[in-house]
User: What shape does this take?
Amino acid sequence: MLQSLARRIDTGQAGGMFTIEHEFDATVITLLDEGEAPLQEDVTINSFAECVTIEQYDPRTDRVQLITLSHEQVRDLSVALDLPEGVYQLREDPK
Assistant: This one.
């Protein structure tokens, strides 16, 4: 029996809601938009061994839009979110 557990996480910012589920072949994260109107559709992120997919329903086309990223692209995105405008190249730290 799978039970869902909601916990509050203090990020120091306005709250959002998301779910994390571990499926047979992927970890599935769903981001829910609970902000002020206009609200966006939920975003579903599927992390597979070989790639990460991002899905969101588009009511204008009545279709789910799908984006596929490599794990390297996800790493680059997470780094880029905290950097100022510019062009960057990530390098291995020589040890």
Residues 36 and 43 are 17 Å apart (CA to CA). The chain has a mean pLDDT of 86. Residues 19-80 form one domain. Strands lie at 17-22, 27-32, 43-47, 52-58, 63-69.
